[in-house]
Amino acid sequence: MASFTSLNRNNVKFRIFFAILTVTVKLPKARSLRCNICESTQSWETCNANMTTIECPTVTDATCVKYSYEMTDTNSDKQQRMFARGCLPQYQCSSSLLPACADLEKSGSKIKATCHVSCCGEDLCNSQAKYNSSVLFLMAMFFVHVFVKCLL
């Protein structure tokens, strides 16, 4: 027959194990940011037609990006354009740090480059342009104000 203290120790071990198991199961699962991804040298419409969704690598500062660039060779006036969506670390979210744009803007080259970068941190936020909810609220309030004024 087992002694009282050994049963008590086993009971404590079981309770600790059960508590750890419960906390582990109830912890929220780490979820990656989901972003749209596409690339086109023609237009946003072509990019949109080939758009898919990916999960960004699990990093704390992941962000969705939408960027375009146009470069012109000043000697030949040849132009190259790129339209793209994807995900990247937050610190690269500027035209000078985004690798695709930074390579274009090297000093001393005979290439004129223009790069536009837009980043956001919500799932699928780098799709087509959408209005911010606060902008929509302000527009609605403006129309209500105009409507009320017309009634008075």
TrEMBL record:
It comes from the Eukaryota. The keyword Signal applies. InterPro entries: Snake_toxin-like_sf. Keywords: Disulfide bond, Signal. This is Uncharacterized protein. It comes from Desmophyllum pertusum.
